[in-house]
Structure formats: C-alpha cells, structure tokens
Amino acid sequence: MSENRRYALWSGLTVAGFALFRAVVMGTSGLGDSESYYWTWAKHPALSYFDHPPLTAWLIHLSTAIGGDTSFWVRLPSLLLFVVTSWLLYRLCVELFDDRRIAFLSILTFNLIPMFAIGALQMVPDIPAAACYIAFVILARRVLENDGPGWIWLVMGAVMGMGLLGKYFAILLLPSVMILTAAVPSYRHWYLRPEPYLMGLVALIFFSPVIWWNYSHDWPSFKFQLVTRHTGRPFTAYTFGRLFGGQALYVMPLYLIGLLWGVYAGVRAAMKGDTRHALLATFSIPTLAFFYIVTAWTEQAEPHWPAFGYLTAIIMMTERGLAAIEEPGNGAKKWMGKYFAAATAMAVAIFALFYIHVYYPILPIKPKYDIVNELYGWDLAGVEITKAYDRLTAEGGGAKPFALAHHWVLCSQIMFATKNKIEVACLNEKTDQFDFWDDETKMIGRSAVMVSDLRFEAPPEELYLFDSARKVAEVPFVRGGVVTRKFTIWEIKGFKGRKHRG
After folding, report:
1. What DSSP state is assigned to residue 471?
2. pTM attached to this predicted model
3. What is the rounded distance in angstroms from the CA atom of residue 326 to the CA atom of residue 321?
4. What contacts 24+ positions apart, CB below 8 Å, involve 189-195?
5. What's the CA gap between 279 and 269, in Å, rounded?
C-alpha cells in the first residue's frame, strides 16, 4: 500500500472513529442549555429567530420529526455535519497539496481541538455554518485557480447563503474572497466579470427569509447582533484577559501557538507567490482578526466566535510544520516535531478527561461553573414540574395553569423536560426568543408552576406579582457525591404579572 493510500485509510478511520464515538455518547445525557433553546425554536418553525438565523432550528425540526424529541435526534444533524466538514477538510488538503499526510493530520487536529471536539457533541449554529465555510473555500480555489467556469461563483453564492442561514458570521466569507481576488494578480480580472457580483445576489436570495423575518418584526435580530450586545467599556484589561484566556482554554495553549505560527508561516509563503497559502490565509486572518477585536471590544463575546478562522489555519499549521520538519538543515526540525506531538498528546488527554468527566466527575470545578452540569438533572425536575402542574389543573378554577421561569435557559429546559406538553412563559426584562411567543396579558389571573435553580435562584416574590405562592419541591441532583444542581418549584395562584424594576 502506498503512503498516500495508507494516510487516506487513516483519515477515513479517524472520521469514522470520532463519528461512532459521538453517536454512542450523544444520546446518553440531556441537552445543553443552548441546545434546548434551539430545540424550542424547532417547535415553533419560522423564517428566522431573535438570536440566530433559522438553519439549526430547521435541521432539529427535521431530525426530531423523524426520530422524536430525544437528545440523540436533536444532535444527529451535528454528527452528520461534522463528518461532512471533516471530509471537506480532507478534500481541500488533497486538492491544494496532493498529500494525504496533511489531510490526515488536519482532520485529526480538527477533531481534537477542544473548541471543535467538545462542540461537536452539540447541535449549535456553528456546525452547519462551518460546513458551508469549508465548502466555500473549496469552490473559491477551484474557480480562481482554474480560471472558471464562471457558474461556480453562483454555487458559491448559494453556499454562502446557506452559511448565513446557519450563522451571521458566514458573512466574513465575502471580504475574504474579495481580498483573495485582489491580492493575487492572476485573479483580479474577475472584478471585471459579472459572476462575483451575481454570487452576492444569490447569497442574498438564500438569506432573504432572515431579512423578511427581521423586517416583519422591526429588525430585532440585527439590532441585537450589531448594537445591543456590544455594550460596556471596550478594550479593558478584563476583555483582553478573557480574549486570550478564552482562546487558550478553547483551543489549548500549544495548539493556539501552533495555529498562529501556521498563519504567520502561511502568509510568508503567500508573499513568495504561493497561491495555495494565499487562499488559506485570506480565509483565516480576516475572521480571526475581526473576532479578536470584537472579543476585546465587548463584554458579551464568546470564546468560540473566532472558530471559523482556525479551520484553514489548521491546514497551514500542518503543511508548514511538515515542510519545516523535512527541510534539510533546519535547526527547528528536532524540537518542532516534538512540539506538535506534545500538542496532540495533550489534546488526546484533554479529550479523554472531558468525556470521562461527563460521566464520572473528576475535574475540580465548582458546580456553578461546570458546564457539564447543564446536561443533567432536568429529567428529575420534569417529573416534579408535571406533578405540580397536574395538581393545579385538578384544582380547576378557569384557564389551564402554565410553567413559569425568568430566564431562557430555564424555560427551554422546562419545555424539553416536560416534552412540550405544558405551556411555558419566560417573563423577564431582557429580550429573547420567548418574547415573540409569550403574551403576558394572557397569563394574568392564572395559576403557574415556577422553577428556579442554583444559577437563576431568585424566588417568586422578587420577580412577579401574585395572590399566593407555595414552595412544593426541591429537587437536588448529585454527581460525584456532591449536590451539583438543585431545582426549586413553586405553585403560584393568581398570577398578576412581572415586577418591573426601575
């Protein structure tokens, strides 16, 4: 067997192995908070939603319509799309360098970096958008390197539009391909052709459901993404610390240094006329730079936002690293190979530790800050919520009772825990997707089952007006001999609305 065929086999086994592992574990826990939120969207099909575009909700709606409202079927699209994205990375490496070693090591790294390795277990907007991101890069290489055919630009528009239906961040594909086309002299003639401009029109057509939904609701999602969430003082020590700390945590320090070095080495190769690295660099640097700035700018940024910029950076790190190791007389040859071996070994260890911790808590993390705790306890809470709801229903007195909480996390998990059989109202001062479904005036005078937990633990009297409230249950959940969650359930009579805080 040739070396290329051997690495192609290893690539396939790697993708299949990770996919099989995820298929086994993804149905063994409850949903994370964000996943449950997107599942609630899937129960209310729409052209778009407040926080994100609709593709994630559409995929969950399709999957759960086939298999039912379980964590496995909610997450199945993520599993399938992660396989697709891994295959697209493989194809991009092969088309650029015709070297299956680069493809294998890139796929392995992609599946081990914590940002992707842990994120792959969840069905979140980044997953479908990432697949579209890499597909767009492949198409851009084909049309620019082969000087056509021009219709590929139209396909790129469709892929960009689909990416935008997944996540707004896919808009960065546009400046990236524009920079690439301008940077390479042999590509510049495309600015005189109509196809690149038609690409934008096709993308706009695909994205039009989101535009129409926002227009119909006074542009709430655009206002939220572009204005509302970017508050607070920009460029503080806190935001800079969170930027670098978040990247080190989500990517790992050794991989982060390696990826940034790969971008630097790729740029150097591009400046010497290597159009392959020009392609990879222009689909990495603008995205990384933009989100590094945004993360340092706003207090509401998330560490995973720069993720798309690391996709092509992985390939640059792998190819430039192998080239450096194999370069005759390169003094870095000995330590560079050990560096990347250490980074991979550390990633494997963290991957194993995380998934062991999911089932057997071994990491010394305070329960309130352990994201794994999101996955557990709601099945027990759902039983008690249903009991309280049934009691209030049996008492009669007019309209049916409803479930009540003051944060979208609680409301989403309540809906999933009770299988969407109980009306849920999420009444608070902040805007979220529930505001587009709830009508507080229709809740007045009714009875309610209110739920809180250790993260969102305000009692009813701090949040709402009512005739009476009675605590009926406390539901602890124990992991590793420690109470990691505690749900508190009240029965409220004569609900009168929110307390508006001045």
Report:
1. E
2. 0.94
3. 9
4. 190/144, 193/150, 195/150, 195/151, 195/153, 195/154
5. 11
